[in-house]
Amino acid sequence: MTVAALLLAAGASRRFGADDKLLARLGGAALVAHAARSLHLPQVDIRIAVAASDAVAEILRDHDFRVVMVAPGQSLSASLSAGMLAVGRGPVQRAIVALGDMPFLRPGDIAALLALAGDGPASAWHMDAPTPPAVFPASWFPRLAGLSGDRGAGALLRGLAPGRRLHLPPERLRDIDTCADLAEARALARAT
């Protein structure tokens, strides 16, 4: 079974300020590099990233991702659609979708999610809602590519059976949206 990893790394970082949050340093590496490393595991055959910044794209290429460039300021669904179109061009049966601003996920988390999914969908779960990363079978690719607005696939995943929900520690599902989030992440990284 061919598995693709799709890393969405084209956000506008509006809440972060003038700088690109994905290039912010955390533990000696760019934030996006941490997210990219979590997708390096034997079960993943193809790695694709969606980026709007040349600097982010360069980092992802250095981590063996094929990069799809989109215009800056695109919605989350536009990035997801561009990525799913790239994933759908190959012989992929499953895709795991992750975000470039989630630096604390581990390869073991991704492996556990892939194992939980089997031939169907599965998602990380926090409190009472789905959250990235999530795994989708090929039959879901057209639905993902057809999403609109600034939302991801959460609405599609809300009805997942409890057995397809991966509960991870909240600190590993932490995403970085603001400078304060980055400061907390740096403190957490120093503490571990």
UniProtKB/TrEMBL annotation:
Highest taxon in the source lineage: Bacteria
This protein's record includes keyword Magnesium: yes
Any one GO molecular-function label of the UniProt entry: transferase activity
A Pfam family assignment: NTP_transf_3
This protein's UniProt keywords: Magnesium, Transferase
InterPro entries recorded: MobA-like_NTP_Trfase, Nucleotide-diphossugar_trans
Domain MobA-like NTP transferase: residue ranges: 5-159
Keyword Nucleus belongs to the record: no
PANTHER family xref list: MOLYBDENUM COFACTOR CYTIDYLYLTRANSFERASE
Record's protein name: NTP transferase domain-containing protein
Taxonomic source organism: Paracoccus mangrovi
